[in-house]
Write a structure and sequence with these properties.
heterotrimer; A alpha/beta (253); B alpha+beta (76); C alpha/beta (355); A: 253 residues; alpha/beta; Rossmann fold; 10 helices; 10 strands; C: 355 residues; 2 domains; 45% helix
Chain lengths: 253, 76, 355
């Protein structure tokens, strides 16, 4: 059978979700943000939620998420996405409301809003991309940067005495009575992508069932910030990130 | 047991040549162009070894930029 | 009824969709009244005590992005925290209502009344070239009325509106006539009136995005030009001022909010002594009534601007009178002190009438 005999509409088994716009994303080659945008679109499509999904974009690399994910979306000031999403969901309880935030947005400047939204059990989903670095501003230390990890502001590696410890904020969030589902996933392999997608689906369903706050942390790579090739970055992540941030459900009630 | 044969169509202009699909493909079907580049200057991915493709969708699933369509047909 | 309470009840009756606030003296009665009224049981209005003023204003941002009638209230230090969010509201062209029941600053300052946030309220406050429509109530009745006016203007021009009150007006008890209850708008009405609002792509309509970020400077300048055009329209149409006996006055008092009430008494004292004193009370602090005050400055012999601050609105009065020779002086108390009419009258005589 020739290639041209296979490439027929009836044989199509995987394609770009229609909800992901046709424009090229601004992310660096191999960036995990792109993969997560794609699976968010897939889940919204599969749930048939296009007409009632509302997203909140962060400040950081994903600041332009609304240029790619074709649902109603709001910008939020740096760190404030959970507050913005709180109001959107409380005022429109029948909508699917999610935030999309990076580690600086969620775990540094927005820690207060994140913890309190989760503690109130707002019926929103927080998608949290943890790549242990500030990508947008040029690779500075994030709250989640590993000890010893080199960044633009820890050029000799993160030191406890100078910079404190990496913050596993999802573990904190799992302690709160308001969260119903806290999980940590990644998107570096086909199996990981499928699991991450299932987690996002579950989180979205929780939000619609008003079970409380769902948090899907995705350990991602920032190959530009880490100064590695995309494939090497995936390998580095498996070797180093998963030890501090183990993959799996932290809470599932 | 039925056997499957696959093929992929890569959106060359969307591809950023990140090489993740190449590293992920279990059957070493894909490679990056060595000389050819797209309009953004990336060495985009292509099927170097199309006969080995089973249409498993691994490449499409991991592709960050959703550039890969995967097709799969049953071989009689 | 207290000013803060009247404001809260009036908001429910407007058909308000949501309130987000954080306790701070002297405005906590707004949140307390709303929680006690439980409007979520009657109109479906959301009331939420947020974790900070920063969260409150960003919740207002989220609600406004949905085309909902939402508001927050606070007092001076809380407003400082909110400035980021107000700048974002202005930049995203969102209608919202923000209430400042001012207390004395700077810093943590005092819990007593002040008007020292005039600059912050009228000149921007946050970053970037923007304005809020600023309404200054001087009675409990106006605390109630300006909630409706504020939202109407905010929705008309898609810009944040602010009620700039102070501890006197917020805490003072007066008789008030409250409006009848109006129903909250339905989603369908919001879809028609606010086609930009985030409520989901029903019928697969085009995606709505609420944003202020624009990395293309040429486009960002066009955005700014559009904002400025809106501000010019507001300046042309929405100036409000109460002018009392100003047509043929010899001396003019200019004051807003609680200080205008003190100045009404000052005017009475002066009238009893045979002086022709007028009172100009700006109701909109932005847009400022330059023309109306400028017209009086042309024929009167002196102007005293009385404020509970070190001299803020006086800068706008000077601009209003810039083409005249009319002398302009300031009388101000700070730190939460509200003067009695006699001492203001003495100052008026010493600095203007007998000069």
């Amino acid at each position: 059978m020739e290639v041209n005999d296979i490439i027929k509409p009836e044989n199509l088994v995987y394609h770009k979700p229609a909800l992901l716009k046709d424009c090229t994303m601004h992310y660096c080659p191999g960036c995990s943000h792109s993969t997560v945008h794609k699976i968010v679109c897939e889940v919204i499509e599969e749930m048939g939620a296009t007409e009632y999904a509302i997203g909140v974009a962060p400040v950081g690399c994903a600041v332009f998420a609304y240029n790619y994910i074709d649902v109603d979306m709001s910008e939020a000031a740096h760190g404030r996405a959970p507050a913005v999403a709180t109001a959107i969901k409380r005022l429109q309880p029948d909508k699917l409301v999610f935030t999309y935030q990076g580690d600086g947005d969620l775990a540094a400047i927005g820690t207060c809003e994140t913890i309190h939204a989760a503690n109130r059990g707002e019926n929103i989903t927080i998608i949290f991309i943890n790549n242990a670095i500030y990508g947008m501003t040029g690779g500075q230390m994030a709250p989640t940067t590993l000890l010893g990890q080199k960044t633009a502001t820890t050029p000799y590696g993160r030191r406890v005495d100078l910079n404190g410890y990496p913050l596993a904020i999802s573990n904190l969030l799992a302690q709160l009575d308001g969260t119903c589902f806290v999980t940590r996933q990644s998107v570096h392999s086909p199996a990981a992508v499928r699991k991450a997608k299932a987690a996002i689906r579950k989180a979205f369903e929780n939000s619609m069932a008003r079970k409380g706050t769902s948090v899907v942390e995705i350990i991602g790579t920032c190959n530009s910030g880490w100064k590695l090739s995309p494939v090497d970055a995936n390998n580095w992540m498996e070797e180093h990130m998963f030890e501090k941030y183990p993959i799996g459900d932290l809470k599932n009630v | 047991m039925a056997k499957f044969k696959g093929a992929v169509v890569i959106d060359e202009e969307r591809c950023k040549g990140c090489n993740i699909c190449v590293a992920t493909c279990p059957f070493k079907v894909l490679a990056l162009q060595k000389k050819e580049v797209n309009n953004k200057g990336y060495h985009y991915a292509y099927m170097e070894n199309p006969d080995a493709c089973t249409g498993c969708t691994s490449c499409g699933t991991v592709c960050p930029d959703a550039c890969i369509e995967v097709y799969r047909a049953k071989i009689d | 009824m207290k000013g803060n309470e009247a404001l809260a009840i009036s908001a429910i009756r407007y058909g308000c969709d949501g309130y987000f606030g954080y306790p701070i003296t002297p405005q906590s009665e707004v949140l307390e009244t709303l929680e006690a009224e439980m409007p979520w049981e009657t109109t479906g209005m959301v009331v939420l005590q947020a974790e900070s003023e920063l969260a409150s204003i960003n919740m207002v941002f989220g609600g406004a992005a949905c085309g909902k009638a939402v508001f927050t209230s606070s007092s001076s230090p809380g407003l400082s925290l909110m400035q980021e969010g107000i700048s974002y509201l202005a930049a995203a062209e969102l209608p919202a209502l923000v209430v400042n029941v001012m207390r004395g600053g700077p810093g943590l300052g005092t819990i007593h009344p002040s008007q020292s946030d005039y600059f912050q309220a009228t000149k921007g406050g946050g970053h970037g070239d923007y304005h809020c429509i600023v309404l200054a109530p001087s009675s409990v009745q106006e605390m109630a009325d300006f909630v409706w006016l504020g939202w109407d203007l905010a929705f008309k021009y898609r810009t944040p509106a602010m009620i700039l009150s102070d501890g006197v007006i917020g805490q003072m008890m007066e008789k008030v006539v409250l409006p009848d209850q109006r129903p909250r708008r339905t989603e369908e009405e919001i879809r028609q009136q606010c086609p930009w609002a985030l409520n989901g792509r029903k019928g697969l309509r085009k995606q709505n995005i609420v944003r202020s970020l624009e990395l293309d400077s040429a486009k960002m300048e066009l955005n700014n030009i559009r904002f400025q055009e809106t501000y010019r329209t507001i300046e042309a149409n929405e100036v409000r001022i109460e002018m009392i006996d100003t047509d043929d006055c010899d001396f003019l008092l200019v004051a807003f909010g609680s200080m205008a009430r003190v100045c009404e008494k000052v005017k009475e004292l002066a009238t009893d002594d045979g002086y022709k004193v007028g009172l100009a009370r700006p109701i909109t602090l932005w847009p400022f009534p330059y023309e109306q005050i400028g017209a009086v400055a042309k024929h009167c012999k002196g102007i005293m601007v009385a404020e509970l601050n070190a001299g803020q609105m006086i800068e706008d009065v000077r601009l209003a009178a810039k083409s005249t020779e009319c002398p302009i002086v300031h009388y101000g108390r700070m730190g939460g002190i509200v003067p009695n009419p006699e001492e203001v009258y003495e100052a008026l005589k010493a600095q203007i009438i007998n000069k």
